[in-house]
Amino acid sequence: MSHNMGNLTIVTEFLLMDFSKNWELQILHAMLFLLIYLMALMGNLLIFTLISLNGHLHTPMYFFLKNLSFLDICLISVTVPKSIANSLSHSCSISYLGCVLQVFLVILFAGSEISFLTVMSYDRYIAICLPLHYETIMTKGSCVRMAVASWFSGGVFGAMYSASTFSLPFCGLKEIHQFFCDVPSLLRISCSEKHIAVYVSVAIGLGLGIFCCISIIISYGHIFSTVLKISDTKGRSKAFSTSLPHLIVFVVFIITGAMAYLNPPLESDSVLDLLLSMFYTVVPPTVNPVIYSLRNKDMKIKFTT
């Protein structure tokens, strides 16, 4: 819906893509999304609750993991429930404000998640490579500061991306070919050729992403070289079991996010775009709890007792 004021069009809502014109397929999509959503919600809530209630798990590693679980709940809750509701109600619309909020929150949670994954790799690096200094470096205060910085960085990027994207004029078609409002799809329907502010935001985001990747690679380089020197196989497998899941989660998250954002905007919208954005908003929150709890002995004991 849009109101004309002279030549200026004020957009009051956008239309999200529906997965199919076929009602049965719409229901199927809603059910599938609901299933994924409930899995992600339960897995992350379980981890969050276990860590909160168990004194033994009040360590820096679990403190960050608890934040990550909370982030994952938030990330998947921003996009999936709305998509389910739209499928079931035959409506594809999302208000302008709703769209701004989705962009802001998705970037906030995704940005914070990258920061947390980086902090967690630093935590593993200290634990495995400098175990004697662990208590003095990873104090409660420094963990809280790192967590605040991670949340804050996400918030700054969220504000930057949403402000730069919605400073663009939107005219003509308001249909976003995506199941939520994300920046690449919005740029495609903007009638402005100049996306400089957005590109600056993307460049800064990319800079942070690259910085986080390099930090994680360096941490893991040190971790693996230290672990391989451990002669005791039990010690070695313990070190791997706390580090590897974290690395896998990071790789999935970064690759899918990068593919979604660095894809040149296509004139025609492809199913690939839809799948990619699903990957970085839906897959990490759903698989993170599985990866962390399956590979982690402390968690397994808590799950079974």
TrEMBL record:
This is Olfactory receptor. Residues 43-292 form the G-protein coupled receptors family 1 profile domain. Its main location: membrane. Odorant receptor. GO terms for molecular function: G protein-coupled receptor activity; olfactory receptor activity. It is a multi-pass membrane protein. The lineage of its organism: Eukaryota, Metazoa, Chordata, Craniata, Vertebrata. InterPro entries: GPCR_Rhodpsn, GPCR_Rhodpsn_7TM, Olfact_rcpt, Olfactory_GPCR.
